[in-house]
Design brief:
Blueprint lengths: L2 H15 L3 H23 L2 H17 L10 H21 L1 E5 L5 E5 L5 H17 L3 H12 L4 H8 L3 H19 L1 H5 L9 H12 L1
């Protein structure tokens, strides 16, 4: 996204608060494709991703009077799409989120008494895949996903370009998904709700 367009986001935000449909349409066009692609990486369905993103923007317009309370609109939109995508997987897989006594969110599946064991097994598999990644790829993944560092911060630490950080992270996530969700990676067209249980667990492990 261009720096010029990015600088327009606060302007559009204020205009939307004032009721401008033009500003809303500009904001929608600016983020739509990236948000749809982001949602597709989670739900693996273009139609579902498009509906999720559209729902997020409908809510933005319906609550336009509150939009100036959002400090970082970009982050807000991606988080909103992420949460709705997660809810979509939950609703189509039978998995739900419950809070433990320690107020920690965990994924459970009511129809499967061995769901906790399955979660732990998948978590162990994830750990093994991460440790087997090439060194730079593994370091990038851990610094970004586990330590929460930004691309430029990781680039400075490893003395590589932010673009390389992005590439290595993509390779890491692609490798993890290929090992743990081979059917999804090899043939997305045949992805169906029976795969959603593993997908939602993997999503939680990768992006929590």
């Amino acid at each position: 996204m261009s720096t010029e367009k990015e600088s327009q986001i606060p302007v559009w935000q204020q205009a939307i608060a004032d009721g401008s449909e033009v500003a809303f349409n500009n904001l929608f066009r600016h983020f739509y494709l990236n948000l749809v692609h982001f949602a597709m990486d989670i739900v693996h369905s273009k139609s579902a991703a498009e509906e999720i993103v559209s729902d997020v923007f409908v809510k933005i317009w319906q609550q336009q009077q509150d939009i100036m309370r959002i400090q970082n609109l970009r982050v807000f939109l991606f988080v909103a799409v992420k949460n709705r995508s997660y809810n979509y997987l939950r609703d189509h897989s039978g998995w739900t989120v419950e809070l433990t006594d320690d107020n920690v969110s965990v994924l459970v599946q009511g129809s499967d008494p061995e769901s906790d064991l399955h979660f732990r097994e998948l978590q162990l598999q994830l750990h093994k895949v991460i440790e087997a990644l090439p060194e730079q790829c593994r370091l990038v993944y851990k610094l970004v996903r586990e330590d929460g560092l930004k691309f430029r911060e990781v680039a400075e630490i490893l003395q590589i370009s932010p673009r390389t950080v992005e590439t290595q992270l993509y390779r890491a996530v692609r490798k993890i998904r290929k090992v743990l969700l081979p059917d999804v990676e090899d043939n997305r067209e045949n992805y169906n709700v029976k795969n959603a249980g593993n997908a939602v667990i993997l999503w939680a492990l990768l992006f929590s």
